[in-house]
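[Target chain]
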Amino acid sequence: MSSQTRVSMRLSNASLPPVLFWAVLGAGILCFQLYVLGKWVSGPYFVATDPGPDPITHGQQLYFLGLQIALPLLALWMLWHWLIKPWRREGSITTDGRLIAAFSMIFFWDMSMNYSSTALFYNSYFLNRGAWNLGSWPTWYSPNANALPEPLLVCIPGYTALVFSQALFICGLLRKVKARHPQMGFLGVLAFVVIGLTIVDTVIEVLLIRSGIYAYPGAIRAITLFAGERFQLPLTETFFFGGLGIGATALLSFYRDDTGKTWAERGIEQVRMGAKGKQWLRFFAVFGFIHFFFFTLYSLPQIFVSLNTDPFPKGYPSYLENGMCVYGVNEDECPGPGVMMPRPPHKIVPGGLPRRSASDAQ
């Protein structure tokens, strides 16, 4: 190995710099994500989920079309503003650039709450190619999960345009509060971020669910808004997703040292490496921190919640249910108490199984 390609790392003390730990973790997570996505795109299940017999209104069609145009444009603008433009100006990726670049891949975990049991529906009238789970995600458990119609032009850019923007919003608000109350300590900041993002995400998700983009049929009704309705919103979702999942990224962004380094990048000065190498190391460290905490604070708790939900509300249209209720002895029920959980291996049907209309489900 030549001296130009050999990476020499010398530590000033015996401990491992946090940046190395997070960078290795981040690189591993990204490799896993690319493997799953690649297997999905190149495999036989990269097919659209058909909406079934139930129609949507002309107004919804126009609304969905507008979303699929507006969200990608907004996401591209944000990536230009926070990543590309500063990178071109300064010759290196800024801290904000690393944050938004890393967060732009968070969409990968979007469906993870369905890992063991169906709890999330998407509207299959959006442009979709099913989902990158059953058949491409090793150990995936829930049946017919590949029929979940992840909306490609809403879900992927939405995590930048609608989700990362929540972290930016709460950090901007927090800076104003901290300026007026400089005595606020870490616990106060933590409470502000968690409560604030839970509220913000609740407001946003109520609007999105009401518009028919997706639904949370799997919920514990005692802690759910509009419980028992098709537009119900489990507060476990907004707390784990908004307060904790997005909150971890907001805290990482808020707490930086005098040189702009985040918690994940601590110890970078101890690593003997070229400037470009350090840039990549810092990116993977931020990536690892954001994705590790999003998965552990959001995905894992929601996987547990999905195994303990109350009965689904009745009457979901075919374009939301999408043939995903294949539980029970006859494989024709939705998950819930007393409903048998199918065991692997599961039959994978490209495009999903035949589904009932809303009137049939009544």
Residues 58-90 form the longest helix (33 residues). The beta strands are 121-122, 214-215, 224-225, 233-234. Residues 1-14 have pLDDT under 50 and may be disordered. Residues 18-361 form one domain.
